[in-house]
Design goal:
globular, 4 domains, 26 helices, 5-stranded mixed beta barrel
Length: about 725
C-alpha cells in the first residue's frame, strides 16, 4: 500500500529536469482555488497560504528528495492563491452602489460596439453629478442608443482622449445570469469598470484631447479609419479589427457569421496574428540583410531581425489594446525571440510555461477567461504535436510542395481538437465545418497581415494603395467563407453548459498526456472519461429567475419556456445557450409552460415521479404554483391568493412585506439585488434553490448574501 502512495512522487523525481511545465499548472490550480471559494478568504486563510509557501520553499531547498515534489506543489498552489488575492485587493476600486441617472463627464479611452450593435464609449477620469469622488467608479462604459445620442458628435467625430459630457442611466455591472455562469461583474471589477449603462441624449464635446493624451489609442483609431476609408464595408472593418484591434466598425451580422464558422479567433489578435506579423518582419529583415553583402558580412542578420521583430511585437501589443490573448502572444514571442538572441531553442513547452507563469502571476484573473484557455490549449498542443513528429522522416516521405498543405491541415486539426472542449464549454456550440473554414482562410489571413505590414511601411511615402488592395481582397475572401460556412445547414451544433469540474479534468487529462513519460501517460484516459461522463450528465435548472425579477425560464419537454417575448435579451440568450438550445427568445416564449396575461404569468413546479426517481418520496407529484408579476405597483396580495411563490420586478415596501400572507413566499427586486439571479433544481422530496451571488466576495462589495426564503406549500423549496 505504501508503495502505491509514494509511486507518484517517485515518478516525478524520475522526470527531474523536465518538471518546469508543471509549475504554471500548479500555480493555476491555486488561482482557481481562490476564485472557487464561496466566501471571501480572511486573514487567517491568507496566513495559512503564506505558511505553506514558506514551508514549501524550505523543503524544496533543504528537504529530502522524496519530499521535494510535494513541497513544490504546495509552494505553487500557495503562490497562485496569494497572487489572486493580492491582485484582487490591488485593483479594487469603487462600484456604483445604486442606480444613477444624471450628468456624466469623462475622458474617452475606448470606442467599440455592444451586442445590440450600438456604439459604445468607455470613459475614465469620471465625474458623476454630485457623487463623492471616493464613491465614483474609476471607469464607466456607456452605450449610445438612437440617433439623438450621436447628434452632437457622430461616430467619425469620436476620438480617444476627448473629454465628453452626457446624461446617462448607469448601474453597477450585473452578476451572472445564473449560478455558475459567466460573471460579468467579476470581469468588470478586475478591469476597474464600476458602472455600465446607456444614453439617448447627445454626447457633448467638453474638451479636445490634451497633447500626448491617449496617444496609442488615437493612433489606433487613425490607422483604423485609414484602412476603412481605403477598404469600404465590412471587409475594411474586418481588416482594421485584425490589424489594430478596433472592431467598432464590424456589424453584428458579420460577428455572428465569424462565430458560427469558427473564425472569430481571427479577430482576437492572439498568437496567430502576432506570429504572422512578427514572422513577416523577421523573415523580411533577415533575408533583406542577406541580399546586401556589405551588411551580411558585418552583422548577425538573425539577431538583428529578432530585435526588430521584438520592437514590432511590442508596438503591436500596445496598438491592439493589450488584451489577455495579445499579452499571452507577446510573452510567447518575447521568449522565442530571446531564445534566438541567446542561441537557444525558440519553441518549446518550457517557453510556453514561462509565458503562462508570468501571466498568471501578473493577471491571475486571466485564468477564468476563454482567451487564456483557448490560446494556451492550442499553443501547447501544436508545440507537442510538431515536436513529436520526426522531421527527417517527414522530409523524406513528404514532398516539399505538399509540406505547406500538410502543415496547414495538421496544425488546424491539432488546434481544433485541443480547443474544442473549451470553445464548446464557453460558447455552447460546436462549429461542424470549422476545420474547413480555417483551411480556406488561414493562408489568406497570413496574406492580410503581411500586406498590412507592407502598407504601414509604405504609407509615409504615399505608396500603400496596392498593399491595402491586397488586404481588402483577403478580407473579402475571409468574410465570404465565414458567411458561406455559417449559412450551411447544421453549421452549428448546440452544446449544453458543463459542470464546474469538467474543464479542470480536461486540463489534467491533456497535461498528463503531454507532460508525462512512459506508460504512465495512458492514465490520462481516466480524467478524460470522467470529464466526458460528467458533461454528458450535466443537469440544467428547472426554473431560472433573472436578477431583476422581470424574466423567468421554465424547463419543459419542448425546452425552456420564457415568461416574456422581449426584454432582458442578454439573459434570455444566455439561458438558452447554456441549455444547448438554438431557439430565439420569441420562439422560447411561445413554448408551453407559462400561462396568463403578460402582467401576471403563472407557472407550476411539479415533480414527475416517472422521471425524477422518487415514486414514493415526500413531495413527489406535489405542485408549487408560481406567478410572475410585471409593473411598478403589482397586487401581491391577490397573487398570493392563487400562488405559493410570487416573483415581481417591483421593490416592495416594508409594509407590503409585513402583509405577506402565510404560505406565500415573495421574491422581489429588492431581494434579487442582493442575491442575484436564482436557479431551482428538482431534488428527491422537494426542490433545491441557489443564488448566483457569491457570499461576500470582493467584487460583490463583500456584502453578505441573505438567506433565501423557503416554500413549504406543496414541494419543499429549501436553501
Amino acid at each position: 500500500m505504501l508503495r502505491w502512495l509514494i509511486w507518484p512522487f517517485e515518478a516525478l523525481l524520475q522526470m527531474r529536469g523536465r518538471l518546469f511545465p508543471w509549475v504554471p499548472l500548479c500555480v493555476g490550480a491555486g488561482v482557481g482555488l481562490w476564485f472557487a471559494l464561496e466566501e471571501e478568504p480572511g486573514p487567517a486563510l491568507y496566513a495559512v497560504a503564506g505558511v505553506v509557501l514558506l514551508a514549501g520553499l524550505w523543503l524544496w531547498r533543504r528537504g529530502p528528495d522524496l519530499a521535494q515534489p510535494a513541497a513544490v506543489i504546495g509552494l505553487c498552489l500557495a503562490l497562485g492563491f496569494l497572487a489572486a488575492g493580492g491582485r484582487a485587493h490591488w485593483v479594487a476600486s469603487p462600484m456604483l452602489e445604486r442606480p444613477f441617472y444624471g450628468p456624466v463627464l469623462g475622458r474617452i479611452i475606448e470606442i467599440d460596439r455592444s451586442a445590440s450593435d450600438a456604439l459604445r464609449v468607455t470613459l475614465d477620469r469620471v465625474v458623476l453629478g454630485d457623487l463623492a469622488p471616493d464613491a465614483t467608479p474609476r471607469i464607466v462604459r456607456i452605450s449610445l442608443h438612437g440617433k439623438a445620442a450621436l447628434a452632437g458628435m457622430g461616430p467619425e467625430g469620436l476620438v480617444p482622449g476627448q473629454v465628453v459630457m452626457n446624461t446617462a442611466r448607469l448601474a453597477a455591472p450585473e452578476g451572472p445570469t445564473e449560478p455558475g455562469g459567466f460573471d460579468f461583474r467579476r470581469m468588470a471589477f478586475f478591469d476597474g469598470m464600476g458602472a455600465v449603462g446607456y444614453s439617448r441624449s447627445p454626447l457633448v464635446l467638453w474638451r479636445e484631447p490634451a497633447a500626448g493624451a491617449q496617444l496609442i489609442n488615437r493612433l489606433r483609431m487613425h490607422l483604423s479609419r485609414a484602412v476603412m476609408a481605403a477598404v469600404p464595408g465590412d471587409a475594411g472593418a474586418f481588416a482594421s479589427g485584425a490589424m489594430t484591434g478596433d472592431r467598432s466598425g464590424i456589424s453584428q451580422d458579420t460577428v455572428a457569421a465569424l462565430r458560427d464558422s469558427n473564425l472569430a479567433h481571427l479577430l482576437a489578435i492572439s498568437g496567430m496574428n502576432m506570429a504572422f506579423l512578427t514572422g513577416f518582419v523577421f523573415v523580411l529583415l533577415r533575408y533583406g540583410v542577406a541580399l546586401v553583402p556589405v551588411l551580411a558580412l558585418r552583422v548577425n542578420s538573425k539577431k538583428l531581425a529578432a530585435g526588430a521583430a521584438f520592437a514590432v511585437a511590442l508596438f503591436y501589443l500596445l496598438l491592439s489594446g493589450a488584451n489577455v490573448a495579445t499579452e499571452r502572444a507577446f510573452l510567447m514571442v518575447t521568449v522565442m525571440l530571446g531564445a534566438v538572441l541567446f542561441d537557444r531553442r525558440a519553441l518549446s513547452l518550457r517557453s510556453v510555461a514561462v509565458s503562462a507563469l508570468v501571466l498568471l502571476l501578473w493577471q491571475p484573473e486571466s485564468l477564468t477567461e476563454p482567451g487564456f484557455q483557448l490560446s494556451f490549449a492550442a499553443t501547447v498542443a501544436l508545440i507537442w504535436a510538431f515536436g513529436a513528429l520526426d522531421r527527417r522522416v517527414m522530409q523524406e516521405r513528404i514532398s516539399r510542395w505538399v509540406m505547406p498543405v500538410f502543415t496547414l491541415v495538421l496544425s488546424s486539426v491539432v488546434a481544433g481538437v485541443a480547443t474544442a472542449p473549451f470553445a464548446a464549454a464557453h460558447f455552447n456550440r460546436f462549429t461542424d465545418y470549422g476545420l474547413v473554414a480555417n483551411l480556406l482562410t488561414v493562408p489568406m489571413m497570413s496574406l492580410l497581415m503581411g500586406a498590412g505590414a507592407v502598407a504601414a511601411l509604405l504609407a509615409p511615402f504615399g505608396l500603400a494603395g496596392p498593399a491595402l488592395w491586397v488586404m481588402g481582397l483577403a478580407a473579402r475572401w475571409i468574410l465570404f467563407v465565414a458567411h458561406w460556412i455559417a449559412g450551411l445547414h447544421g453549421a452549428v451544433t448546440p452544446i449544453v453548459a458543463p459542470g464546474p469540474w469538467v474543464l479542470p479534468l480536461f486540463v489534467v487529462a491533456g497535461a498528463w498526456a503531454i507532460l508525462m513519460q512512459g506508460r504512465a501517460r495512458a492514465l490520462a484516459v481516466l480524467p478524460l472519461v470522467l470529464a466526458l461522463g460528467l458533461w454528458a450528465g450535466a443537469e440544467r435548472p428547472v426554473l431560472l429567475i433573472s436578477s431583476d425579477g422581470g424574466l423567468a425560464g421554465l424547463m419543459g419537454p419542448a425546452g425552456r419556456a420564457l415568461s416574456a417575448d422581449k426584454g432582458a435579451g442578454f439573459t434570455a440568450r444566455n439561458w438558452l445557450e447554456n441549455d444547448g438550445d438554438l431557439a430565439g427568445q420569441a420562439e422560447a416564449w411561445a413554448r408551453p409552460g407559462f400561462h396568463g396575461p403578460k402582467a401576471m404569468r403563472g407557472f407550476i413546479l411539479e415533480h414527475d415521479p416517472g422521471r425524477d426517481g422518487c415514486p414514493q418520496g415526500p413531495g413527489c407529484g406535489l405542485k408549487v404554483r408560481g406567478v410572475i408579476l410585471a409593473g411598478k405597483d403589482p397586487d401581491v396580495a391577490a397573487a398570493c391568493g392563487a400562488a405559493d411563490l410570487v416573483i415581481t420586478s417591483a421593490v416592495l415596501t416594508s409594509a407590503a412585506r409585513r402583509q405577506q400572507p402565510a404560505g406565500c413566499q415573495i421574491i422581489d427586486r429588492g431581494l434579487l439585488r442582493q442575491i442575484g439571479a436564482v436557479a431551482v433544481w428538482r431534488r428527491e422530496g422537494g426542490w433545491a434553490i441557489r443564488p448566483a451571488a457569491q457570499n461576500g466576495r470582493i467584487w460583490m462589495g463583500q456584502k453578505s448574501v441573505p438567506n433565501l426564503p423557503s416554500l413549504t406549500t406543496g414541494g419543499q423549496l429549501n436553501p
